[in-house]
Amino acid sequence: MLYGIVAAITALFLAAVLTALLRGPALRLGLHDRRQRQRRVPLFGGAAVVLATCLVAVAGDWTGIAPLGDGIEVLLVAGGAVAALGLVADVWRLNARFLVVGTAVAAAFVVPYEDTGPVAGAAGVGWITFVALAFRSLDHADGVAGTVGVVTAFGVAACAAVEVMDGLAVLLSVFAAALTGFLMHNWPPARVALGACGSLFAGFLLAAAAVITRAGHDPVTGTAVLFALTAVAGADVALVVLSRRLAGRPLLRGGPDHLAHRLRRLGITAQGATVLIAAAAFSAVLAGVLVHAGRADARAVWWVAGGALVVVFGLLRVAVYGPPRARGRRAAQAGRPSRARGARRGVRVADGSHEARPAVRPGAGPAPVYAPRRQSEDAAHHSDPGGRRAGRSVSSQVKASLRVRNG
């Protein structure tokens, strides 16, 4: 127990230091989160979490202070391979199919087929792949994926401790501590992002550990426990898929339609949204741990499923996409006559007609906006009823018209 606490503290400080050190190279290389539009958040935070977890776990196993046990080395190597794939996705744009195939291949090496059987083992591979990609999707806001990962890691570690899998429990405790050290830099407003490297590694490690822990138990209860342990990540995926389907948007097209985005639209702060999502994850994970330990009936997971459905359908009513671009409306306005366009073409005179503005010569500066209006001939004639202005002569036609008008 003491060895596990020492390993966790070491991982926490090591992850915090590595995250701070790797932030500078990420900024110099221009590797920042592409989903951030208002500010640049550098990546490599996930690489710090992976390095801290693997270094502390390997050092504890090599020195004998915190041995991992049989099969945990394969899990750590497969998780490292998934993290490397995510790092490549952070540096270069990879097609989503490569992430799916690579994660599925890594998951196929960690599923205990002798305890699950071939059918349940294949289902376990699919579930591990889904959770890994769901955590990648959950990394849509500052602090969300890291906080949910810490809560889930402690829950899965508790399940492993119930099964007397001390090596797996130590590994998950070290991983939770490394995520906590990373959260010192990722709490909103974040200075470093987790990225695909860290989020894929987190989802893969947690899902694979849960499958290993539940191997050999009742498949129905096992399915309920696995769902409860990762209910928040699954609810986020369901919310995004449903909203994009209803809006007619492509599924792989990003947008502000995740859990934290919709909570922010409701007026909740970034820190408040992260705390609410973490509280929901804690409630679901607690139900899964109690069912796994036999302290609660499997029907308790139905409350988790019902709560997830209420959240998903409730947040679907929050408008996040905005009105579409009105290209057709702009085209219709282009062919419609407008007073403003007529006013641009000429200057309105007293009789209601438009007079063309004089052309502005190059270099002459802008034309005056409020130019004096020209006085019409009738106004000029009526302004002097006596028929003569100072310094000017009046024509005979004007004099005759004045005589007729005056009688």
UniProtKB/TrEMBL annotation:
Residues 338-347 have a biased composition (Basic residues). It is a multi-pass membrane protein. It comes from the Bacteria. Keywords: Cell membrane, Membrane, Transferase, Transmembrane, Transmembrane helix. Residues 374-387 have a biased composition (Basic and acidic residues). InterPro entries: Glycosyl_transferase_4 (IPR000715). Residues 327-337, 359-373 have a biased composition (Low complexity). Its main location: membrane. The chain crosses the membrane at residues 6-22, 43-65, 71-89, 96-113, 119-136, 143-162, 168-185, 192-212, 224-243, 272-294, 300-320. It is found in: Cell membrane. Residues 327-407 are annotated as: Disordered. PANTHER family: PHOSPHO-N-ACETYLMURAMOYL-PENTAPEPTIDE-TRANSFERASE, UNDECAPRENYL-PHOSPHATE ALPHA-N-ACETYLGLUCOSAMINYL 1-PHOSPHATE TRANSFERASE. This is Glycosyltransferase.
